[in-house]
Amino acid sequence: xxxxxxxxxxxxxxxxxxxxxxxxxxxxxxxxxxxxxxxxxxxxxxxxxxxxxxxxxxxxxxxxxxxxxxxxxxxxxxxxxxxxxxxxxxxxxxxxxxxxxxxxxxxxxxxxxxxxxxxxxxxxxxxxxxxxxxxxxxxxxxxxxxx
Length: 147
Known about the structure:
The protein has a single domain (2-144), classed as 3-Layer(bba) Sandwich (D-tyrosyl-trna(Tyr) Deacylase, Chain: A). 24% of the residues lie in helices and 39% in strands. It contains three helices and eight strands; from the N terminus they run E-E-E-H-E-E-H-E-H-E-E. Strands 1, 2, 3, 6, 7 and 8 form a six-stranded mixed sheet that branches. Strands 4-5 form a two-stranded antiparallel ribbon. A hairpin with a 2-residue loop joins strand 1 and strand 2. Helix 1 crosses helix 3. The radius of gyration is 15 Å and the shape is globular. The mean pLDDT is 97.
């Protein structure tokens, strides 16, 4: 799975003018499933994200995790993270999982995250979403997890 994490002071997702998910301080996780991914891949990604030390401690050193700061996790599906821009001027998204597999893995990611962490919000799979965020730092971290 591919993920792009952004440490945020706040973030929200809107669909058709209505807020479908929002958090205060925490992490915005844009996530893309790939064809070989499984539920175990999604669980490995979530476990890593929850423990990733990207929040400042008393000395302003990135030494605290999302769990340590009791922050929110906003998970948004984004198949464009699998973009291949090597061919021409139009990206190819053939590296992304097919829609049905992507949906199942996104839902599994959400369910697992909610079982592990108390503050989890989400976007809407396949929807035209507007993502609003206040990037904190800025801190933006790309991740790829395989089994």
